[in-house]
Amino acid sequence: MQDATMTSGRRLQLAVGAMLLAGLFSIFFGWLCDVTFGHETWAAFVLEHFGLVIGLPMAAALAFAIVVAFQQTSEGPVSLRFGPLEFTGPAGPIVLWVLCFLATVLAIRLLTP
Predict the structure, then answer these.
(1) SS3 content of the chain, % helix, strand, coil (to 5)
(2) Predicted structure pTM score
(3) How is the chain split into domains, by residue range?
């Protein structure tokens, strides 16, 4: 019987594949919006709301990459502790992703004129 856990290399391959798939989906979505709304309309919207159209998906991808990097470099499961609160098991990476995503979104919001 095979072991049901994934190896570290397999997890990294899966994470890189997910990042590439998300990038391809973003490109397809942009192309579809360009065809649907017209190039001038879509380009004006992207330039006016750059942080929304480009920044938020990139923030999600960055948060995902940070979580994957922590999972690859830690010896056990990712766990977080904030005072009396402790997040272990599946909640650890989820809370880490949310915190990284919100921090990046806040930085985008603060730096956007």
Answers:
(1) 75, 5, 20
(2) 0.78
(3) 8-111
